[in-house]
């Protein structure tokens, strides 16, 4: 049901803060409200002064009468390590009745190349784009504030009839294309299908018909004595999102990564066993560049977990595997990159070997640094920085939550051990960030070797207040005030997806269905 | 103006104008395609002042509408008042040249190039050239890429100061930040070089070419190879060595296989551009390296060029170069590990025999041909067989026939029907080369066996093959060898084979002539009108319609007509239908052709989809009367898929549906 016209039903709720921020709940009752919009055009209006969230919820024809309330909450919080302010948004209590609570879980977060836009994807197949308010407004805190720019349904649940498989609509990854004209373009992917979207603004509309008036009433033909050419008149700014290309039917397994090449005409998409190379303009064919599928699936020992292109060498890309290795491939050497150019692997410590060592060594994310010199990887317990010139061991290893090492057994039982944490570089490659449990996220300064644990939660982070560093102590050890014991960590609150503004110290943290945006106000020691 | 003509003439134009902003894309597209009608009605004045400003701002539309608009505007000169006012078309085309969709941009550039010719030299400098500059210094890469295509059209017609500016702009774009613009500049480099004065080619273009050819982006470097061809043709021979060859040598040994591939792909053009001396000294070793490249794609591209390269070698040393330098590499390629390389080679290798002459062919090439005829990959064998004519001219086909026959037989019985189909298509050619006796002796049985293949496409191709053979060998041969066998199949217990008889008769009647058709074929067809299978009967009706023109009118009246009239009262509605069509002499259905094939997906009940076929139970019943091979779903489903063998092949994986009356259901989309 892509025909959803997001209607802002609730009135604009002013909050206690000196800010006009409002949450409007979007409800689409599709069959009744099929407004004459072209099929895929989702329009959201942005109102001046009010930052307005219009969230579309698709209702299947069977439930066309039930109202579903979205439980997306976007918090934008201004933070520095010293002074932190946040802007909270109250949520309707009806939220708990939401029909599909999991649909709102944010599954990916991505800044565009300038950092002006931030896109999130969720399990319900929606993409929400935030735009940074222009600086220099009268409102002192409005600077750098991210507000909803556009919301659209990117993917729909599908069913593969040949394989009897359901295809989830969950957005696995979003990647922005470098800006090419006034419009913005992004790629979004679920498990199987990658789509290219155009996000553009429109501020004019044509007026003047010959045979009917503006309300659509037919004019009397006898009164039509001269021809009238339509004239374009200014109107309120409208953001339009339209699908440009659909890249389908190339992946047998689940797509885990997409990455745009520095040549800006190709991109790669990786699933569990294969990596394909696409041309952005061609949807009916892609080239397989890596295939690790064994002839016999019983011989399968590792899968591809992530892949990314080098930021400026068009021929290099890296992919990580479930065995904890990274392979750097050069597309110049051969068309099929089955042979890697470099293999990054840390020799296993035989003394630390356990039942879980293979599971926890699986790389869940890999990111090139902006300089292109380093690779950042994340496995279950650590984040590692590799130098492209040193294959035998990582340059730096950071313990994200080493205190969990003793709890691996219970983490295995509740499947948490398979969580895929992402990681991010800051703009100058000096700090790395990655998520953890209990709504905690970790930052490591590579120069000073200082690290900090912060919490993204509505309870603890007051609007525009300092985020307090948190500490987790192992069970039994001496506790300071405010420290949290390992046993009291909430494993259902996990921060898997994080993104760092490409130039500034602004970070976006997705904690289940909440998005937190923290901003560095002062020059802190950390950055 | 049209306004004076009254309401009647105004109305259709008013509708067209209103539909320019209709919500239905198809209607907008329709209106845009009739833009000239609108402009004509508005008159030149209003077109310039009202219509064009409106069009300038309509860049929000769908790509196909914009594409049509860009195309229309290229032919609009007269509608805005002739060459004097042609510059009015620049603003809408300028905005179209900045959209993100490449095809629209390219079309806008094409139209701009077209109307640039209609500008007077003054207008070109006053209006067109500033537009090019604006695009070239635009904020977004889309406008800058479009600018690259416009330099060459305005350069020859502007003053020397403006020329200098244009060269400067082009230089800037060649070192643009974004690879997209550098690619656009690299692809237009050759074209721009052609309009430049030779001195500037040497001073400007060469440095740009060298820079682009060593760009960090592979996609830019490979486009520089193309530019190399046109630049090399412009320069005098003595400058090539210093100005072009270092770059070309570097490209042929580029680290990226894509660049090397491009060199291999453009090798013949490069060879012609640089001339015989450089070819001998530089290109021969380069070509050897490409033939031995580590990347199969490059080897395949080079292998494809073997014949052309050898043909274009200077005649005095051609044979020596081929024998000592090229042939050893070719020999290695025959046993390459990659089948694409082998099949690329197989498609051209036969051509070498004409260049090398009889003795060399027998001594050196023949072993290679024979090896390739035994290759494990059917495509390689097919490629050799398809080019037999080249060898035939030089050494005669007898030399090969010993190996040829087993190869043909093996292909003819290949498990893959597409391979069988391919060899059938070469049969008429082979028959021509091998002669009637060899054919009758060895290949005739194969041709007959294909008629009862279990895949329809093969049977169809086999009938078509018979027709071509008859055209080649004559009606008498047909009467002695083919016709008896074909007619014998009319008594086959399998109705599909009986139908094949009819299809063969359809195909052969014309080639065999009136006598054979009336005396031998017609009785069989008429007898089949009593067949118990309805499909056979209505094909009898169709056959009679088909062969009618060949028959004499006497037979038509006395024999054909009664049978058709009887069929017209058949219990089966389709037999009736076709019989009536045959009587009234109208051709209803297009002949079975691959174009009518349609892929149908199967959908479970629930969500209607535009791919699905929705059939009522009565349709299902009527389908059941026909030749349903298999059926998915049934009455309980709101969608079924049926496989009908009527006019086309049924693939096991994707059903192909060939039932013309139902085809309309598929076009819901």
From TrEMBL, chain A:
InterPro entries: PP2A_PR55 (IPR000009), PP2A_PR55_CS (IPR018067), WD40/YVTN_repeat-like_dom_sf (IPR015943), WD40_repeat_dom_sf (IPR036322), WD40_rpt (IPR001680). Keywords: Repeat, WD repeat. GO terms for cellular component: protein phosphatase type 2A complex. It comes from the Eukaryota. GO terms for molecular function: protein phosphatase regulator activity. Gene3D superfamilies: YVTN repeat-like/Quinoprotein amine dehydrogenase. Belongs to the phosphatase 2A regulatory subunit B family. This is Serine/threonine-protein phosphatase 2A 55 kDa regulatory subunit B. It comes from Gadus morhua. The lineage of its organism: Eukaryota, Metazoa, Chordata, Craniata, Vertebrata.
Automatic annotation (TrEMBL), chain B:
Residues 276-357 form the Phosphatase PP2A regulatory subunit A/Splicing factor 3B subunit 1-like HEAT repeat domain. Keywords: Repeat. One of its GO terms (cellular component) is protein phosphatase type 2A complex. Pfam families: HEAT, PPP2R1A-like_HEAT, VPS15-like_hel. The keyword Signal does not apply. InterPro entries: 2AA_helical, ARM-like, ARM-type_fold, HEAT, HEAT_type_2, PP2A/SF3B1-like_HEAT, PP2A_Regulatory_Subunit_A. HEAT repeats lie at residues 12-50, 89-127, 166-204, 205-243, 244-282, 283-320, 326-364, 365-403, 404-442, 482-520, 521-559. It comes from the Eukaryota. Signal peptide: none annotated. GO terms for molecular function: protein phosphatase regulator activity. Residues 89-270 form the Phosphatase 2A Regulatory Subunit A helical domain. Belongs to the phosphatase 2A regulatory subunit A family. This is Protein phosphatase 2, regulatory subunit A, beta b. It comes from Gadus morhua.
């Amino acid at each position: 049901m892509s025909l959803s016209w997001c209607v802002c039903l609730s009135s604009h709720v002013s909050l206690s803060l000196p800010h006009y921020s409002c949450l409007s709940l979007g409800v689409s009752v599709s069959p009744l409200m099929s407004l004459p919009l072209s099929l895929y055009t989702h329009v959201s209006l942005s109102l001046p002064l009010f930052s307005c969230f219009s969230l579309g919820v698709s209702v299947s024809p069977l439930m066309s009468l039930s109202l579903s309330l979205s439980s997306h909450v976007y918090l934008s919080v201004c933070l520095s390590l010293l002074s932190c302010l946040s802007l909270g948004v109250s949520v309707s209590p009806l939220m708990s009745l939401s029909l599909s609570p999991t649909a709102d879980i944010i599954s990916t977060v991505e800044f565009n190349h300038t950092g002006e836009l931030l896109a999130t994807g969720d399990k319900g197949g929606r993409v929400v784009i935030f735009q940074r308010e222009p600086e220099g407004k009268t409102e002192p805190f409005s600077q750098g504030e991210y507000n909803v720019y556009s919301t659209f349904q990117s993917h729909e649940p599908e069913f593969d009839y040949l394989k009897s498989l359901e295809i989830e609509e969950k957005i696995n990854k979003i990647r922005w294309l470098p800006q090419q004209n006034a419009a913005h373009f992004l790629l979004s992917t679920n498990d199987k299908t990658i789509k290219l979207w155009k996000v553009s603004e429109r501020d004019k509309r044509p007026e003047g018909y010959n045979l009917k008036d503006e309300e659509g009433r037919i004019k009397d033909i006898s009164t039509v004595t001269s021809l009238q050419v339509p004239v374009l008149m200014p109107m309120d700014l409208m953001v339009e999102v339209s699908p440009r290309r659909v890249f389908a039917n190339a992946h047998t397994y689940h797509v885990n990564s997409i990455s745009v090449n520095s040549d800006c005409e190709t991109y790669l998409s990786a699933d569990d066993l294969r990596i394909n190379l696409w041309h952005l303009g061609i949807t009916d064919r892609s080239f397989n560049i890596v295939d690790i599928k064994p002839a016999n699936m019983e011989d399968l020992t590792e899968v591809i977990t992530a892949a990314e292109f080098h930021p400026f060498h068009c021929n290099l890309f890296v992919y990580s595997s479930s065995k904890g290795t990274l392979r750097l491939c050069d597309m110049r050497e051969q068309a099929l990159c089955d042979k890697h150019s470099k293999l990054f692997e840390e020799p296993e410590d035989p003394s630390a070997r356990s039942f879980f060592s293979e599971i926890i060594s699986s790389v869940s994310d890999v990111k090139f640094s902006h300089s292109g010199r380093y690779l950042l990887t994340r496995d279950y317990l650590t984040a590692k920085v590799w130098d492209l010139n040193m294959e035998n061991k990582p340059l730096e290893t950071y313990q994200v939550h080493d205190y969990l090492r003793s709890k691996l057994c219970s983490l295995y039982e509740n499947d948490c051990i398979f969580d895929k944490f992402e990681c991010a570089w800051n703009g100058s490659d000096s700090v790395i960030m990655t998520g953890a449990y209990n709504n905690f996220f970790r930052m490591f300064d590579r120069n000073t070797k200082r690290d900090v644990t912060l919490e993204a939660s509505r309870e603890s982070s007051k609007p525009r207040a300092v985020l307090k560093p948190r500490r987790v102590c192992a069970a039994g050890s001496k506790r300071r005030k405010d420290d949290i014991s390992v046993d009291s960590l909430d494993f259902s609150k996990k921060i898997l997806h994080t993104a760092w503004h490409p130039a500034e110290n602004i970070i976006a943290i997705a904690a289940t269905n909440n998005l937190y945006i923290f901003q560095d106000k002062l020059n802190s020691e950390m950055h | 103006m049209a306004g004076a003509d009254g309401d009647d003439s105004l109305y259709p134009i008013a509708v067209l104008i209103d539909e320019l902003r209709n919500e239905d894309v198809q209607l907008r597209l329709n209106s845009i395609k009739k833009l000239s009608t609108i402009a004509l009605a508005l008159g030149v004045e209003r077109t310039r002042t009202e219509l064009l400003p409106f069009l300038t701002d309509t860049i929000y539309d769908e790509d196909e509408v914009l594409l049509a608009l860009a195309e229309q505007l290229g032919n609009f000169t007269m509608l805005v008042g002739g060459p004097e006012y042609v510059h009015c078309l620049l603003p809408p085309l300028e905005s179209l040249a900045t959209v993100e969709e490449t095809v629209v941009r390219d079309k806008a550039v094409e139209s701009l190039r077209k109307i640039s010719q209609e500008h007077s030299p003054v207008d070109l400098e006053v209006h067109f050239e500033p537009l090019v500059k604006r695009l070239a210094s635009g904020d977004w890469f889309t406008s800058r890429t479009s600018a690259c295509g416009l330099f060459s059209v305005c350069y020859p017609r502007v003053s020397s100061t403006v020329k200098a500016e244009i060269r400067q702009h082009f230089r800037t774009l060649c070192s643009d930040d974004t690879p997209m613009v550098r690619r656009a500049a690299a692809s237009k480099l050759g074209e721009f070089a052609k309009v430049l004065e030779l001195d500037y080619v040497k001073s400007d273009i060469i440095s740009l070419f060298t820079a682009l050819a060593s760009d960090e982006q592979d996609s830019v470097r490979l486009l520089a190879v193309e530019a190399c061809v046109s630049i090399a043709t412009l320069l005098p021979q003595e400058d090539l060595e210093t100005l072009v060859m270092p770059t070309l040598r570097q490209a042929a040994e580029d680290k990226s296989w894509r660049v090397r591939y491009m060199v291999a792909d453009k090798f013949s053009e490069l060879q012609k551009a640089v001339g015989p001396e450089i070819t001998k000294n530089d290109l021969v070793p380069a070509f050897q390296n490409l033939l031995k490249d580590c990347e199969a794609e490059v080897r395949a591209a080079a292998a494809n060029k073997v014949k052309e390269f050898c043909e274009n070698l200077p005649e005095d040393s051609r044979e020596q170069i081929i024998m000592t330098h090229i042939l050893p590499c070719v020999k290695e390629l025959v046993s390459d590990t990659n089948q694409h390389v082998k099949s690329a080679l197989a498609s051209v290798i036969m051509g070498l025999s004409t260049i090398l002459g009889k003795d060399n062919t027998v001594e050196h090439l023949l072993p290679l041909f024979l090896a390739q005829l035994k290759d494990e990959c059917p495509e390689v064998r097919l490629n050799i067989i398809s080019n037999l004519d080249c060898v035939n001219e030089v050494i005669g086909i007898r030399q090969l026939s010993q190996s040829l026959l087993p190869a043909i037989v093996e292909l003819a019985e290949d498990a893959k029907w597409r391979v069988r189909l391919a060899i059938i298509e070469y049969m008429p050619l082979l028959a021509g080369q091998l002669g009637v006796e060899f054919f009758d002796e060895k290949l005739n049985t194969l041709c007959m066996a294909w008629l009862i293949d279990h895949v329809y496409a093969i049977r169809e191709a086999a009938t078509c093959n018979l027709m071509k053979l008859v055209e080649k060998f004559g009606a008498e041969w047909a009467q002695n060898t083919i016709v008896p066998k074909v007619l014998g199949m009319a008594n086959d217990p399998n109705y599909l084979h009986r139908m094949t008889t009819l299809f063969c008769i359809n195909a052969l009647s014309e080639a065999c002539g009136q006598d054979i058709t009336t005396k031998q074929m017609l009785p069989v067809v008429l007898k089949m009108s009593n067949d118990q299978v309805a499909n056979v009967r209505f094909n009898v009706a169709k056959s009679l319609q088909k062969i009618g023109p060949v028959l004499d009118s006497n037979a038509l009246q006395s024999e054909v007509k009664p049978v058709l009239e009887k069929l017209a009262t058949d219990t089966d509605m389709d037999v009736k239908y076709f019989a009536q069509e045959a009587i009234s002499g109208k051709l209803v259905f297009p002949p079975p052709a691959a174009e009518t094939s349609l892929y149908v997906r199967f959908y479970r009940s629930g969500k209607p989809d535009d791919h699905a076929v929705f059939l009522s139970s009565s349709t299902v019943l009527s389908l059941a009367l026909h030749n349903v091979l298999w059926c998915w779903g049934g009455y309980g489903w709101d969608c079924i898929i049926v496989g009908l063998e009527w006019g086309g092949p049924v693939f096991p994986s994707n059903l192909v549906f060939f039932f013309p009356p139902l085809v309309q259901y598929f076009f819901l989309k």
